Structure to design on (738 residues):
């Protein structure tokens, strides 16, 4: 009898699963808050609310899909299974863009947060230092990933716990001691943005909610994934939503404890310190925390550090995620087998890590170029409306997320119709019962709402982000050309899909996940379906 | 620094709501319902805790329990059980019940000494006792009753080293008559067979 193949150990607990997601999504508010405040001004809370509603739909979709198909691979796998190879590639390729941006954006803002404690890291004052430290972080994380060292679930869990407590304290103390509802209404009234800026703010707000699929990527290591993942996903959705909405309202309605003045000495409201100031945008939560009475004195010391650690973890998860997604796509023949190659000594996907960290460094160069070489400012101003490096990274991040999430909604609808036999431990509410090929299926109405929501954000992104609408689609076109060449060379269907035995795969997935009751239910469903079909055939 | 603290009732309510909602969400997440398998595992764990409240490891010239002692100590440590190492010397009927049997008594000292060493190394409290009896199985059952033992741990005895009678008579009688669980460990005589085959 052959020895059984080694498998991932199911050691990720509910908190571990939550912290995997939180270390990715939780860091987003550290980046997104300042950008949205700068863009949407008095409607920041509305921008977060709209993005939040879409995010809840995305979260519910991911929760259902990850609980039904508890495999590593995330959105790319769901789209591949639901819509076919080429759409799986597009979704995966968009996610890969997001992961590479994730690496750069979070390393960049990690340095911004550190600059709160170490002024030499401030981007506008010392652009070369800022660039050098960010580059050093990316290269360092890449090397650690090649060697195979990455943060442990326990470390993630501790940092996430500290962050949840800290963010809750910031909000509780902030609302208790510094919130003025009349100021919030006043700010919303007098600083309501133009429709263009509201769209810009909304498209940036979505980046505060990206990364939910980290939970599904750890599905193969999670105990009882079909039961635990719905809980951890829903908890993550609610936690992040509460934080995002609370932060945006607090920032607009906060009477600063410390008086804030602009360069001319005029007093300003808190949210007014962000427009046209990349340094402030990159460390919004730390600045807000420092304004809280009593707690602010302590928070000013440790929140920048905690934020920097969380952002560094998130940057690292971008490297890990991109290499693993590329590995998974390569195994599905969506990318060349080169991306499956593992380092002979360290047993890590070194080629993928090097390739996508290389892309991340290119993005860093492009984002830093105007500040490093002032002569380029004119060029960037002409083509990209004076966008800062942080704006550039956020543009692409929003584009990649909106694209891949749009496909995930379509995949959810397709899988509901194509695969009604798979037991769904969690199901999005509000479904319309229909019959598809003799099987009872349920059409998810929320997925339609979610699709239009995220698709509108994609349109906002293309409309309001000058770099995003050029670089994002260019990335997709470049990928599609490479995909066509690769598939043609391998004699694989270019526009169609490979034949796969999804039934056998689903049984294996549920067995490997330890969800034996669901596996039994699936097999029984399949048998009953076959029996029904056989009975319906003419004798 | 200008400390203009402003406490607004709405702000206070929102602060409370945030604290409560985050706490409630995390509590709900961390307390998922148990699956059927988890319920079974929990039941078994409770039974094991009851099972191993008091453990007796039995040694005798016919019962080689040396290899079971480490297991007994690990079990006792994990479950914080009371552990008794019992050495039974069977006195032939040709001798008086309290007859001196220096060789057997010396063997008892060795066995119990080794047991104490293992227990001390693992920070487990161990009591030792040597008894002389006409019938090993009766004495073991009697002491198990006296100690209200939950588990008897026995080694095995290869009579004549032939495969047909792996367990001695005493072991079979104890297993048949004991009112508590009996764990019998048969020592492997052929090494790690499957591992060696694969290697």
């Amino acid at each position: 009898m052959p020895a059984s193949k080694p498998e991932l150990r199911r050691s990720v607990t509910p908190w571990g699963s939550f912290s995997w997601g939180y270390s990715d999504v939780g860091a987003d508010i550290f980046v997104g808050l300042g950008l949205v405040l700068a863009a949407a001004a008095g409607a920041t809370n509305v921008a977060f609310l709209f993005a939040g509603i879409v995010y809840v739909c995305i979260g519910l979709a991911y929760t259902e899909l990850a609980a039904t198909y508890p495999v590593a691979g995330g959105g790319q796998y769901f789209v591949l299974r639901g819509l076919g190879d080429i759409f799986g590639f597009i979704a995966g390729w968009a996610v890969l863009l997001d992961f590479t941006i994730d690496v750069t954006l979070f390393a960049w803002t990690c340095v911004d947060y550190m600059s709160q404690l170490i002024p030499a890291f401030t981007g506008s004052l010392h652009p070369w230092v800022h660039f050098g430290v960010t580059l050093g972080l990316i290269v360092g994380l890449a090397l650690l990933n090649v060697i195979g060292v990455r943060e442990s679930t326990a470390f993630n869990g501790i940092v996430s716990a500290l962050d949840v407590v800290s963010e809750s304290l910031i909000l509780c103390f902030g609302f208790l001691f510094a919130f003025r509802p009349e100021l919030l209404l006043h700010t919303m009234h007098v600083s309501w943005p133009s429709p263009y800026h509201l769209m810009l703010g909304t498209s940036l707000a979505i980046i505060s909610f990206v990364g939910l699929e980290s939970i599904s990527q750890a599905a193969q290591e999670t105990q009882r994934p079909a039961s635990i993942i719905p809980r951890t996903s829903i908890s993550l959705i609610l936690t992040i939503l509460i934080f995002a909405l609370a932060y945006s309202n607090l920032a607009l309605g906060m009477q600063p404890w410390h008086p804030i003045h602009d360069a001319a000495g005029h007093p300003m409201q808190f949210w007014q310190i962000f427009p046209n100031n990349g340094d402030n945008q990159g460390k919004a939560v730390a600045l807000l925390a420092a304004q809280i009475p009593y707690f602010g004195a302590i928070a000013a010391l440790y929140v920048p550090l905690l934020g920097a650690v969380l952002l560094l973890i998130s940057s690292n998860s971008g490297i890990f995620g991109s290499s693993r997604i590329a590995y998974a796509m390569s195994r599905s023949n969506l990318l060349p087998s080169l991306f499956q190659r593992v380092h002979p000594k360290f047993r890590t996907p070194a080629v993928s890590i090097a390739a996508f960290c290389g892309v991340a460094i290119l993005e860093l160069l492009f984002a830093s170029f105007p500040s490093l070489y002032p002569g380029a400012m004119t060029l960037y101003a002409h083509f990209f409306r004076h966008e800062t490096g942080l704006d550039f990274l956020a543009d692409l991040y929003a584009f990649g997320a909106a694209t891949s999430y749009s496909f995930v909604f379509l995949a959810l609808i397709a899988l509901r119709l194509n695969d009604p036999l798979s037991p769904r431990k969690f199901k999005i509410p509000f479904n319309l019962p229909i019959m598809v090929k003799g099987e009872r299926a349920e059409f998810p109405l929320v997925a339609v709402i979610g699709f239009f929501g995220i698709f509108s954000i994609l349109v906002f992104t293309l409309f309001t982000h000058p770099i995003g609408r050029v670089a994002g689609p260019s990335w997709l076109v470049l990928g599609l050309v490479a995909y066509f060449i690769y598939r043609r060379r391998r004699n694989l269907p270019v526009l169609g899909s490979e034949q796969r035995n999804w039934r056998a795969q689903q049984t294996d997935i549920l067995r490997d996940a330890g969800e034996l009751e669901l596996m039994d239910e699936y097999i029984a469903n399949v048998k009953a379906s076959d029996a029904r079909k056989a009975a319906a055939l003419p004798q | 620094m200008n400390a203009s603290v402003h406490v607004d009732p709405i702000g206070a309510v929102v602060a409370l709501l945030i604290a409560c909602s985050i706490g409630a969400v995390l509590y709900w997440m961390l307390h998922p319902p148990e699956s059927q398998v988890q319920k079974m595992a929990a039941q078994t764990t409770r039974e094991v805790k009851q099972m191993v409240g008091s453990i007796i490891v039995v040694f005798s010239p016919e019962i080689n329990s040396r290899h079971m002692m480490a297991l007994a100590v690990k079990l006792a440590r994990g479950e914080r059980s009371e552990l008794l190492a019992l050495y039974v010397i069977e006195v032939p009927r040709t001798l008086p019940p309290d007859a001196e049997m220096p060789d057997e008594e010396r063997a008892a000292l060795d066995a119990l000494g080794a047991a104490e060493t293992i227990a001390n190394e693992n920070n487990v409290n161990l009591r030792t006792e040597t008894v002389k009896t006409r019938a090993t199985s009766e004495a073991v059952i009697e002491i198990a009753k006296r100690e209200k033992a939950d588990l008897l741990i026995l080694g095995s005895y290869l009579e004549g080293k032939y495969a047909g009678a792996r367990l001695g008579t005493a072991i079979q009688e104890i297993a048949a008559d004991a009112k508590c669980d009996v764990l019998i460990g048969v020592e492997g005589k052929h090494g790690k067979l499957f591992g060696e085959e694969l290697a």
Summary: Chain B touches chain A through 30 residues (CB under 8 Å). The longest strand of chain B covers residues 82-90. The mean pLDDT of chain B is 82. Residues 112 and 169 of chain B are 22 Å apart (CA to CA).
